[in-house]
Amino acid sequence: MRSFVFAIPAILIGIAISRSSVDPPSTPPTFYRNVLPILQQHCQRCHRTGEIAPMPLVTYDQVKSWTRLMNQDVHSRRMPPWFADPCCGHFANDPSLTEEQVATIGAWVDAKAPAGDPHDAPPPPHWAEGWNIAEPDQVLPMPKPVAIPASGDVEYTYEIVPTNFNQDKWVQMSEIRPSNRQYVHHAVVYIRPPDSQWLRGAPLNTPFTASSLNDPALRHQAHETTSDLLLVYAPGSSPDQWPDDMAKLIPAHSDLVFQMHYTTNGLAGEDQTSVGLVFSKHAPKERVLTLQLANDHDPIPIPPNTDNYRVEVHGTLPHDATLLSFFPHMHLRGKRFEYNLVHPDHTTETLLRVNYDFYWQLSYRLAQPLPVKAGTVLQAVAWYDNSSNNAHNPDPDSPVTWGDQTYNEMMVGFFDVAVPAGMDKQHFFLHDKH
Fold first, then answer.
1. Distance CA 22, CA 8 (A)
2. Taking CA 161 as the corner, what is the angle to CA 157 and CA 164, rounded to the nearest 5 degrees?
3. Which residue among 61, 89, 266, 355 has the highest number of C-beta atoms inside a 10 angstrom radius?
4. pLDDT per residue over 100-137, tens digit each?
5. 396 contacts 390 by C-beta, under 8 angstroms
6. Torsion of CA 370, 275, 267, 235, to 10 degrees
């Protein structure tokens, strides 16, 4: 995922299974009364037809086939996936089961998974078909599908999609939906307002890559921008859903720029990613901006056979803001990622520590949004494992350079902030002159 940063000086640039210590219920739990509510609240967002998990866990017959594995996974805390170290911070989207819920599932499996009375079942949650957000007010697909070869590297692919909005749109929920997830390493959708010159002259409504552009200036622009992000997608990531008084802004007559990173897997195919938008019913008090701390061109490669290789970046917030959420991104050698506040006395306060998993790249939304003052220093620290201890490491005997492909490495710490509704990203990065 290529890092795009404002060019303004001095600104932001197998778990061991252990049984629960909670005593199992005295009466054997049943599926409909005790287990189904847990699955609805913690599992079915992914474990339903058409979603990222490999099997649905909605009906009794579906779940009965997976009881043994499900019991192992919840006791090992492998599922639901969550990688924030409990040492630091509390997060609103933490799907982790309580000890009591883990004990309930264990007792139900030990009792040979009784179904119980279907009348005990809670009402099924309402899912918008094909979406994890509410039914979108507007769906904007990439107009043309992208052909993916069976093998080799695929250069970052772009499609510019005019919104044709004749008025400003405040977006309260958004979700990126690849049509073929198996090829999508990541997707970023950028908002290009009508006064932006970014990639003007590049084709509309058709796929292109930087190398396919004849103009050297356009080829350079494909690799960096100051445009705001609407949303980032990676395997396991969540859609955006903001409170009633917050939203992202798509100005009238803007374009959406899809940046797609595809990877090959031995089978040729195609993808036509879409983004779904739910508009705010009223103008919000605060605007959400997505910012980032990034090390995107480190000249020193990660040495071979090296664990705990450390990379640090930091930046200073030029205006008051409220920290809302974090989304760390690395590649296959990624091991751990931290976001820290650096206090004036140079002590650090860790807001989030993630035991990184490339295959489940989650966002982490603060349970209590954190107001921060102008001048606050935010630090991101990443650790990499380029040794044979890393089961995902494609080649521990080689140095790892920074770059776009999965076998390269990256270090991007996305984070969301809320600012006054009238402040855009460009003005956020301008210091007050007083």
1. 54
2. 170
3. 89
4. 999 999 999 999 999 999 999 999 998 888 899 999 99
5. yes
6. 10
